[in-house]
Write a structure and sequence with these properties.
Strand order of the largest sheet: 3-2-1-4-5-6
Largest sheet: 6 strands, parallel
Strand content: 15-25%
Oligomer: single chain
Distance between the termini: 75 Å
Number of helices: 18
Number of strands: 21
Radius of gyration: 35 Å
Structural class: alpha/beta
Length: 550
Amino acid sequence: MLSKLKRSSKRFLALLAILPMVVLILGTIYMLGMEYLEDSPRTFLQSIQWATETLTTTGYGADSRWNHPVLALFVIFGQFMGQFLVFLIFPLLVLPYFEERFEVRLQHVLPPMTGKVLFYRYGPAIESLLEDFNSTGSPFVILEEDVELARNLRDRGFDVVFGKLVDDPQILARVNQAQAVVTNADDHANASLTLIVREHGFIGPLYALADDPIYRQPLIQIGATAVFTPSHVLGAALASRASTRISPPAEGMHLLGTKVGMAEFRVGAGSPLAGKKLGDLHLREEHGVSVIGQWYGGVFTTTKGPETRVQSGAILVAVGLHANLEKVERMAMPIRRSGPIVVAGYGAVGKKVAEMLHDAGEECAVIDRISVPGVDVVGNVLEQSILDRARVREASAVILALSDDSESMFATAAVRDYAPEVPLIVRVLRAPNTARLYRSGADFAISVGQVAGQILAYHLLKEQVMHVQNRIKFSRLSAGNLSGVHPWRSQALDQTGAKVIAVEREGDVLVEFADDFTLRPDDVLFVCGSTNSLERYQKAFQPSSAAAAS
C-alpha cells in the first residue's frame, strides 16, 4: 500500500514520524543539561515545551539565558535546527503535499475519444492549429509528458492527459476510438507512439511531424499515414516569398506581354499616400495605375473601391504601364526586386532556404555565427560591418531564419534601420511573437505553426483554414454582365476586389480608358486580383466560359 503513495505523500508521512522523535530527543537532552550543567532542574514537560518552542521558533518564556558553554552551544544548535525546519523542510515536504491535495488533478488516462483528435506533445508546430480547433469547436485531447506544461495547458482550458508512454503505455487504452492522431514529439518518440497506437488497435489516420526527412519512410513503414517536415516546408515558404523565380508575383501576367508591369511600393509615414483613401488619390484617373491590394502585417487585402484607405507602413501592389508606375515611385518607396538574397541563420530552416534559392538559380549570401560549409559571411547579423560584407543594401530580399524569436526581433529592427527599402522576411518560432516582429519592421513573418497548421488543417478539418500567402492572378475573361459599364467606375466590380487592367478590342489591347469608354459584349478583359477576389468576380459577372482562358 505504501509503495503506491506519491513521493510527496511518503515524504510528508516521514516528516510526521520523525518530528515527534526529534522533539523528544532535544527535550531529553535539554532536561539533563539543565540538571547537571546549569544546576537548574526542569521537568520533562518543561523540557518538551522548550524543544517545541525552539523548533517552531516561537520564542522562550523564563529560559532565555544559559551559563554553561556546552548547554549554550546545544541551544544554539537547536535554534538553527528550528530555522532549518521552518524555511527548508516545510517548503520541501509539507507544501508539495498540500498542493497536490488541493490542485485540480491531471488526467492520467485518455478520456472517451469518439470524434476527437489526439495530439501527442504540445509545441510551436501545432499551437496555431489548436487555436483553430478551439475556434471551430472541434474536440481534441493533448497527451503531454512534461508535467508543468501539462498543467499550463490545463489552466488554458485544453483537455490534457499527463503521462509517460515508456512507463505506462496503457494511457492510450482508448486511442482506438479517436478520429485521428497527430504526433509532434522528437523522431524517436514519434516512432514509439506510432507503434503503441497501432498495437492498441487504432486503424485511423496517423500524421507525424518529423524533424528530419530521413525518418519519413521508416515512420510510414511502422504505421504512420503521412509524415511531414514542417521546418522544411517553412524554409520553402520563406524562399518562395523572397524569390520571384520560385514564386512569380502574379500568375498569368504573361497574358499581357511586356506592355504592363507590376510593382510593389512601401508606403512610409511621410508618403503623400499614407492614410489617404484611394478615391482621394485618383491613381487610376491621373496616373493610369490600378492598386490591386496592400500587404499590411503580413496579410494581403484587395482594395475594394474608393473608400479603401492606404495604411502607413503597408506595401502596395500596383499594376499599370511601366512609365505610369514610375510616377508612383515619387510618392512611395519602390521595393527592389534585383540583387542577391541574404539569408541570416544556417540551421535546419536556413539550410533549406539556401538550398531552394541555389536550386532556383538565385544569387544567395548566407550569414551565420559559425563558420561551416555553405556560410558566406561569419558574424552577428546585428553588426553593421557584417551587413556591409553581405551587401544587404543591394539585396532583393533579406530572410532572417534565426532560431530564437528574441534575436529575430533585434535583427529585424537592425536590418530595417540599415536597409529600409529591402523586403524583410522573418522566420517565427512561436506564433504569438508574429505581431511583435511586424512592429519591429518585418514585411512578412511566417511561423512553423502556420505551415504545419495549414497542412494538418487540410487533412483534419477538410479545409484550408490558414493561408501563408494570398496569390495574385491574372485571368483573361469575357465582359459578361459588365457590358455597358466603364471598367474603372463600377461599384459592383470594386466590391469583388478584382480590377480590370486591360481590354482587348478588335486586336488592340487598351490599358487607359476615356471617360466615355464602356465595355462591349465582345470585349476580352484582363482581370487581376487574389484567388478569392477573382472567384467573387466570376459569381458577380458570370463571364462566358467559352471566352475565358487563364
